[in-house]
Amino acid sequence: MAITASQVKELRERTGAGMMECKKALVETDGDIDVAIENLRKSGLAKADKKASRVAAEGVVAISVSDDGSRGVMVEVNCETDFVAKGDEFVEFANQIASTVLAGSPADVAVLSDMDLAGGSTTVEVRRQELIAKLGENMTVRRFSVIDSRGGVIGFYSHGGRIGVMTALQGGDALLAKDVSMHVAAIRPIALSEDDIPADVLAREKEIFSSQAVESGKPENIIEKMVVGKMKKFVNEVTLLGQPFVKDADQTIAQLMESNGATIVEFARLEVGEGIEKREENFADEVMAQING
């Protein structure tokens, strides 16, 4: 049967696939749109499987906060290139996922993948496969963080969509929480206070400082004081409360909180590609990789 332009248009709108792919799918199914959709999704899954081994270290961190400001969500969604990461469809997908997490409170990414995508007509996983088929890059929903205000306030900060931070305060206001979030984005504390630093991290640093002190040849009582001093400096450098405030280095974050009658309940920081080993590729190789699928 003859395939009409309106059929192709409808199939494109429902699947997001390219025009030629839609026309071919309709020809193969004699104009049956539902079967064509199923076939395109199967094709998308095959393409997704083929691209799954490719490194996806670019992407965005999307943020969504509840209307009453009581809960906040950040998600990291990855793709292969910065070009795709800046595209409207990819950014919309990431924002929809953040809204999905906010509304549905999934336990982990596996549960999230099977949930209905907020503002969409498919699940998160099906839409991911559709975008892989359409945009030609591997994509992953890597992780998400959820923060509860616990009756206080939440402030958030996004740096170019690549770094996202949320901070929950008791006392203070949303502006102060945003200032702290900006600080976290820039200075990257690993914990709120010394009590929150993993024990193995503290033990490793103490061992390093002890070895350095012994090599100095100083008496044992002096070595002990040197290690204590170095550990105190380390703790202040890596904990949020111990760090000098990025907007005013004359006061620490702890002092900033005290002067504003506020307490930091928790914070979360996500950075695109953090911890992912990236391949070194030049632009020409990247383009050829896209051409070759």
TrEMBL record:
Gene3D superfamilies: 1.10.286.20, DNA helicase RuvA subunit, C-terminal domain, Elongation factor Ts, dimerisation domain. It comes from Candidatus Thiopontia autotrophica. It comes from the Bacteria. InterPro entries: EF-Ts_dimer_sf (IPR036402), Transl_elong_EFTs/EF1B (IPR001816), Transl_elong_EFTs/EF1B_dimer (IPR014039), Transl_elong_Ts_CS (IPR018101), UBA-like_sf (IPR009060). Associates with the EF-Tu.GDP complex and induces the exchange of GDP to GTP. It remains bound to the aminoacyl-tRNA.EF-Tu.GTP complex up to the GTP hydrolysis stage on the ribosome. Residues 81-84 are annotated as: Involved in Mg(2+) ion dislocation from EF-Tu. HAMAP family: EF_Ts (MF_00050). GO terms for cellular component: cytoplasm. NCBIfam families: tsf (TIGR00116). GO terms for molecular function: translation elongation factor activity. Keywords: Cytoplasm, Elongation factor, Protein biosynthesis. It holds the Pfam family EF_TS. Belongs to the EF-Ts family. This is Elongation factor Ts. Its main location: cytoplasm. The lineage of its organism: Bacteria, Pseudomonadati, Pseudomonadota, Gammaproteobacteria, Candidatus Thiopontia. Residues 72-274 form the Translation elongation factor EFTs/EF1B dimerisation domain. It is found in: Cytoplasm.
